Amino acid sequence: MKPNVIMVTGAAGNLGSAVVAELASRGARLVCLERNAVSLDELVSRLPAETEILKLPGVDLTDFEACRNAVLKSEERFGEIHGLVNTVGGFRMTPVGEAGLAEWDTLLTLNARTAYAISAAILPAMQKARYGRIVHIAAAPGLKAGARQAAYAASKAALIRLTEAIAAENRTYRITANCILPGTIDTPENRAAMPDANTDSWVPAGAIAHLIAYLVSPEAGAVTGASIPATGF
């Protein structure tokens, strides 16, 4: 059987649910991590009945042991695990100053530590199989920060550097690691937050999910260590 066991974090979020739907349509076997158990059940109810899925609600992605237990449960269910799509993250804007210190810690934890912990937990299984695909969701400010973006940009820069290091360390294991840098994703929350914005260039979550589905496929073995813009037209 082709390698198609994929773990998705933030599985019931706007991007995560699009990724899960796309991968399910391609016959992937899915491990879905989601903080909210009700949202996870609703997501699964919308998938094709034949989808093989392991639901793991409430996993603390900042805790390495919790991440490792999630990987062990995945291996118990499916034997191997071939891909990780990490969609967990957060966004806040705060100017540099005393009040911004808390945001600095929060965003580095939410955007970088979570990615580190789940990556560190899943890599031994991929190394053993000598195959793996890892995709993280970064952002353009990780390359160049704007005003009030110090904490957010630093956390996404850390995620990009983490991805590059994973790629460099795991080439001999045939494990790839890449980042997506989306533009503004067209979600109900973004439309509500920016009611007067021109949404023509906003990126549908499904389009990003399609790109991710390629990156976690066997065909994408030549792409690793990349930060790939997905900013729309």
UniProtKB/TrEMBL annotation:
UniProt GO BP: fatty acid elongation
CDD domains on file: SDR_c
InterPro entries listed in its UniProt record: NAD(P)-bd_dom_sf, Sc_DH/Rdtase_CS, SDR_fam
Molecular function, one GO term: oxidoreductase activity, acting on the CH-OH group of donors, NAD or NADP as acceptor
Family listed: Belongs to the short-chain dehydrogenases/reductases (SDR) family.
Protein name: 3-oxoacyl-ACP reductase
Organism (species): Rhizobium tubonense
Lineage of producing organism: Bacteria, Pseudomonadati, Pseudomonadota, Alphaproteobacteria, Hyphomicrobiales
